[in-house]
Amino acid sequence: MSYLSALRVSLNEKLLQLEESLESNLPHLLDASPYSFLDDAEILPPKLVFDLLEKIRVDLKAVDSMITPTRFKLVEMGMLHYKCAALNTAVVLNVAQAIESFGGEAQLCDLAMKCDVNEHKLGRILRTLTGEFVFVECSPDRFKNSRHSIALLSPGARSFISFITDLGMKCANGIPGDMVNPDTKHSFSDRTAPFCKMVSKNDQTFAEYMGDPKNAEMVALGNEGIVGWLNGLTRASLINDYPWEALGDAKVIDLGCGMGDSGIDVLKKFPRLSWVYQDLPSVIDNLKENFPDQLQPRVRDGQISFVVQDYFQSNVSDGDVWYMRGVLHEYDDNEALEVLKHLAVAMRRTPNSIMIINEVLNCSPFILPETSIAPPSEHIPSDQSCLPSTGNTMTWSTFSLFGGKERSLEEYEGLLNSAGFTVSKLYRFRTFTVMLECVLSSQSK
Ligand SMILES: C[S@@+](CC[C@H](N)C(=O)[O-])C[C@H]1O[C@@H](n2cnc3c(N)ncnc32)[C@H](O)[C@@H]1O
């Protein structure tokens, strides 16, 4: 069987399986409404469907790559930033809203008038996007929203696209230089991240830049876009794909809790848990001030508390579960080891305590043995995050903004073993992050 045939058969089988699994709730593409089964951030598809979707997408990419002439493949990839720019332009002009204001369909000339832009240029922006099924040209020069463009009515979605397009493109352009510059090539520090050269240009780190009152607009965009919208990519799986319920009334220590949103989500669903938020003083003050009213009674009865704690120092709290989201990836190995060693000391005070680490893993989208004619969907490694391509892109986005080192499972295991931990379980979330559950090696059975 040829490779093309193998892909055809694989896709046919998987699409049939998908149709059977979804029954009457089949996806749509062109209607200007979300397909809630996939587009509602609170709903997770069953694991079987989630895996099937990923496999189909991977095999479709293989077919696309197979039938695309190399020059076109490379040119299209090298010019992806124009697609980003088109999306951002549609966001800046709020074209989705403009279309809705005309009753759901609009002539190009009317849209151009409403957005106060040149009709010809707007047509080119829209057609760059209709090729991706973001907007639909339903008759010549007449446009409507699609399932994917209607989502741009959300202020959070627009904020994120605006935030990441400009910053992201500038920072991404700094990656090749970072990789070859002798001063930065082995650094994972926020001080040398591409952001410092390409955006702040005065060596201000991302955190320093965002703390500067003159960049308040950027901070607001980031908050609304990232916490308010992008986190929808991972929120449901954090709550549903880790067995929080089984922790009963455990006391969770949330190290480097930041804005505390992940703990807030978990606490709302699992009220028996106790939670200790730890971070640096200004972050803890901010969290206390903005903590949701709904959880205040549990603050008053001591079930939720706030502790100033530098995680590079001995930890003052005791707890059953030590939780870190997006902390270890901030650091190169030596610093990450330091944090972990302090935790190991603290955990020895509570027998059978565990540590849970929520991160993106560096992944292989697929590993294709030369002799195999099985489609790439059959060669996706299982001991890594799901959605490896999305995860890998996210790791570059965070690195180019604020440095940090994402790791593969193997790399985490090496680091954790040196600090006296054993990874006891890998929870693959229905998104691009995982939860690594760890115990002290001295207590592992
Ligand atoms: C990338 S953020 C992660 C925040 C949060 N865990 C989340 O997932 O949204 C890292 C957090 O670590 C905190 N942090 C940085 N250095 C720290 C230190 N030495 N001790 C404690 N927290 C620290 C920062 O203030 C920030 O809130």
Automatic annotation (TrEMBL):
InterPro entries cross-referenced by the UniProt entry: COMT-like, COMT_C, SAM-dependent_MTases_sf, WH-like_DNA-bd_sf, WH_DNA-bd_sf
Keywords associated with the record: Methyltransferase, S-adenosyl-L-methionine, Transferase
GO terms assigned for molecular function: O-methyltransferase activity
Pfam family, one: Methyltransf_2
Alphabetical list of Gene3D superfamilies matching this protein: Vaccinia Virus protein VP39 (3.40.50.150), Winged helix-like DNA-binding domain superfamily/Winged helix DNA-binding domain (1.10.10.10)
Top-level taxon of origin: Eukaryota
Limits of the O-methyltransferase C-terminal domain: 250-421
Any one GO BP annotation for this protein: methylation
UniProt KW Cell wall biogenesis/degradation keyword: no
PANTHER family the UniProt entry points to: O-METHYLTRANSFERASE CICE, PUTATIVE (AFU_ORTHOLOGUE AFUA_4G14580)-RELATED
Protein name: S-adenosyl-L-methionine-dependent methyltransferase
